[in-house]
C-alpha cells in the first residue's frame, strides 16, 4: 500500500549516514529483495494452490509467514 514501501525506504536510508558507501549497498539489497519476492511469490502461491488441498489458503498462509519473518528480522 501507499504507506508501507515509502516508509521502508526511509528506514533503509536512516541506517547509514548520507555519504556512507554502505547506504548504496543497503538500497541495492532492499530493492533486490522486493524484485525477487515479486518474481517468486506468484509462482510459489500458484504451485501451492494447484498442489495442495487448501487451494489459495496455502498461499495466504505463506504470505503471512513471510510477513512475520520480515517483522522478526526487522525487530532483531
Describe this structure in words.
The chain is mainly α. It has one domain (4-75). Helices cover 79% and strands 0% of the residues. It contains 3 helices and no strands. The protein has helices spanning 4-13, 21-51, 57-75. Helix 2 (21-51) runs antiparallel to helix 3 (57-75). The protein starts with a helix and ends with a helix. The mean pLDDT is 86.
Number of domains: 1
How many strand elements? 0
Q: How confident overall, as mean pLDDT?
A: 86
Give Rg in angstroms. 16 Å
Order of helices and strands: HHH
What structural class should be given to the helix and strand makeup? Answer: mainly alpha
Q: Describe the largest sheet.
A: none
Low-confidence stretches: none
Shape call: elongated
Helix content: over 70%
Terminal residue distance: 24 Å
Number of helices: 3
Amino acid at each position: 500500500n501507499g504507506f508501507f514501501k515509502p516508509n521502508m525506504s526511509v528506514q533503509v536510508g536512516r541506517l547509514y549516514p548520507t555519504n556512507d558507501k554502505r547506504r548504496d549497498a543497503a538500497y541495492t539489497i532492499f530493492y533486490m529483495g522486493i524484485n525477487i519476492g515479486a518474481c517468486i511469490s506468484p509462482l510459489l502461491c500458484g504451485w501451492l494452490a494447484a498442489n495442495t488441498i487448501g487451494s489459495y489458503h496455502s498461499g495466504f498462509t505463506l504470505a503471512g509467514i513471510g510477513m512475520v519473518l520480515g517483522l522478526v528480522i526487522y525487530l532483531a
